[in-house]
From TrEMBL:
Protein name as catalogued: Cytochrome c domain-containing protein
UniProt entry keywords in alphabetical sequence: Signal
Signal peptide: 1-21
Source lineage: Bacteria, Pseudomonadati, Pseudomonadota, Betaproteobacteria, Burkholderiales
Amino acid sequence: MRRLMALLLWMALAPVVPASADPPDLHDYWDGRCKSCHGDAGDFARSTLQVEQGRLIGRHHRDRLDEFLQQHYLADDWVAPVTAMLVAQVTTAPVFKAKCSGCHGSAADFARKSLLLRDGVPVGKAGNRPVADYLRAHGGLAPDEIAPMVETLKRVLGEVGRGAG
């Protein structure tokens, strides 16, 4: 019984790191480790972080945000990918949230459930149609919003571990 309790305690306290066989899902990691205090990753990034000279900085941890993240519940293997995800969210307009989330939920959930990456092109799982083609007649996006939306969805596919293809 003592061994079982020790094993369970170790499992609960061990840092979660990306498995080498499966690509990491950064959004699941954020939701499990960070969301209870910081909320949605995109909302958090856009309201509290900024990018200056290519570096992610925070309101309170301007010069050493990467060091802070290593000490703030992020396993070492997750600091760089989570930082890259936050940089992308700070520098990307929340068009998916504004125009798509009402029907499709979060971009991460939508990417997991409905999209694949084929030869570097996001396509729908149903019908294998390129997302760019679909968006020309769906979602009310302006023509100049289609390419950035496709790039956002391609990035999110990578963030949820579905970027290979």
